[in-house]
Amino acid sequence: MGFGTLKPPKTTAEQIADALRAAILHGTLQSGQPLRQDEIAREFDVSKIPVREALSRLEVEGLVEIRHNRGAVVTHLSFREVDEIYAIRIALETLVIKRAIPAQMPADLHQAQLILGEIDVENNLERWAELNWKFHSALYRPSGMNILLKTVEGLHTNVARFLQLSQLGDLGYLAKSQDEHYQLLELCRRKDVDGACVLLQKHLSGPVSYLADLMPITDWT
Amino acid sequence: MGFGTLKPPKTTAEQIADALRAAILHGTLQSGQPLRQDEIAREFDVSKIPVREALSRLEVEGLVEIRHNRGAVVTHLSFREVDEIYAIRIALETLVIKRAIPAQMPADLHQAQLILGEIDVENNLERWAELNWKFHSALYRPSGMNILLKTVEGLHTNVARFLQLSQLGDLGYLAKSQDEHYQLLELCRRKDVDGACVLLQKHLSGPVSYLADLMPITDWT
DNA sequence: TTGACCCAAATCGTATACACTTATACAATA
DNA sequence: TATTGTATAAGTGTATACGATTTGGGTCAA
User: Nearest CA of chain A to the CA of B106: how many Å?
Assistant: First the structure.
């Protein structure tokens, strides 16, 4: 055969989770905003049940905090936590790239290059974050470390809203980041594991140092 | 000041999740076993709603797989995945210990030592796994990296059932592990960051190499 | 004024009921 | 006999309904 696997139609809960996640990442729903179950249910014209399941999912993704009998709130990520997430990502992504590079086939690298082409012409910041992860995961996937990939993806979406919020896009960060992407791809082509690790570390240290510089100005509580 | 935070009474869903998790870790519920909602609901004399939420939580913990409209199944962890989890743990736990050691106060180390004392006299394997994590997290917590701690805890519970399953306890592994615990504590006392990292790496490589040796014998699919 | 107490509205958590999907057994057909 | 079609049962997903908990006043006594 050789058909692709057909995707199951999404459950209502998943759709709601997707919509809420997008709203949180986009900034429509801001930190601290309470999320009332029946309100959301009315909004989407469904019952509370799938809404509760959606919130439950978002909770484990770290986007929402559920307090027993007191409702859900959009989580607030402090600078400390953003810093922590990037530290974790450095540890995990250097690990995964080490195992991925020896397994990367020309087709994998080609696909990654195509994604870079898409990023080049993209100027919507949300869509950019999506493509960014698509590129990274394309390089990582050959490692076969699926649990690790899932974990990193979660961290990725979690910091995405801060790139959004901090207007990092205006600071020339995107161009610099994309430049590093091309370098990373080149290092993968050369099977230069150590070089790739060093670059990744730099790549993932960028945002926090940018933000750290802005700390006094921005009210990063 | 100095009170602990008081825990909210657990929701039904959480209690069910706890019960199911325990059953999975203990081996009562084995890999591949389907988990029917209404059956579980009858079992605990509740409705399906909290059961569904419990299963949903266990899914993100990686203990259960939910297939759309086809029910939940206890996940099956392959040797590859156990290996992967330990690789992730090495990356994360060496990171966290690096940041924890400088922040560890005498009280933290003392508490860790007390836990080791408990482990010494414990011979129930499930309880042992619990205490094991209690020890590790006591050393890690001063790092202040709460997201990381949550992540590692998840990985920890996920491999716990394999220690159970593989009867690693009978192989002198527990004694060796406990020996390394004492060494790790000592290194923390001396603020020997590099030494602690090396030891942790060794500590977390133990189980997989043990299992790898058994591979031909055991049916590790 | 302050604090204890109580009540009502808002909101959450769960049980019951039902629609819809998937799996199974069996009959129909070639 | 092997394959296809159909009825039935099992099981999941969601809506509705209701009891339980929290919250925000408002009253009253100290």
Answer: 24
